Every structure is written in C-alpha cells, then in structure tokens.
Amino acid sequence: MSLDRIGFAVTDFARSRASDTAALAPLGIVMVEEGEGWAMLGRDGEPRFWFGATGTPPGRIHLAFAAAGAEDNRAPGPRPQYHPDYYGAFVIAPNGHITEAVCHAPEA
Fold it and tell me: Which long-range contacts (C-beta less than 8 Å, at least 24 apart) are formed by 14-21?
C-alpha cells in the first residue's frame, strides 16, 4: 500500500503546529503550505501530512515517518517485537497523537 497523504483535525492547532514542525524538521519534513487554522508539511515541496482546527479531532492516532541518519532525541531504540531490524523513536504531541521516526533497515 502506498499512502499519498494523511490529514486530521486537532484540538489545539497552535500547539500542534509548534510541536510537529519542531519534531519533524530533523527528518527534512517542513512546512509546505499553511493558512488560518491549518498546515501542510512534507518534503521537496510535496504536502503529504496536514492537520487543522476544522472538524472533529479523531481519537488517538499513530503515525510513523521514515528516517535515516537523524540524531536521536528521545528514548529511541530497537523494537524487536515488531521485526529484527525495527528501530523507532516516539513523540507524543500535545494533542495526544503519537508521531514516530522509524527505520526498517539492518544496522550498518
């Protein structure tokens, strides 16, 4: 399955914008477009991840972004319960959503 983009409503747009842009910048995921109460982040000018203050926020969701060579910041580590080469770092955003940086490649 290839996911083209994902978007969802958040309860506190300003806090979500601040935490998500800070957490994803080391992965090269930056602000592509934004407007009153909504933002679109992505790489290479492609808005693939968006969120906003419209609609009803869903319950807790889990997102995993591919990473390679990023500097660890919070309790990252192997997750062999998922598969032998799984390495993940998790951040819980102010809205309660979980953002993950993940690498599936064997250790170099």
Answer: 15/93, 15/94, 15/95, 16/51, 16/93, 16/94, 16/95, 17/51, 19/91, 19/93, 19/94, 20/49, 20/51, 20/93, 20/99
Superfamily of domain 6-52+61-103: 2,3-Dihydroxybiphenyl 1,2-Dioxygenase, domain 1 (3.10.180.10)
- pLDDT confidence of residue 97: 77
Per-domain boundaries in the chain: 6-52+61-103
What digits encode the pLDDT tens for the residues 34-83? 999 999 999 999 999 999 998 899 888 888 888 764 344 456 888 899 99
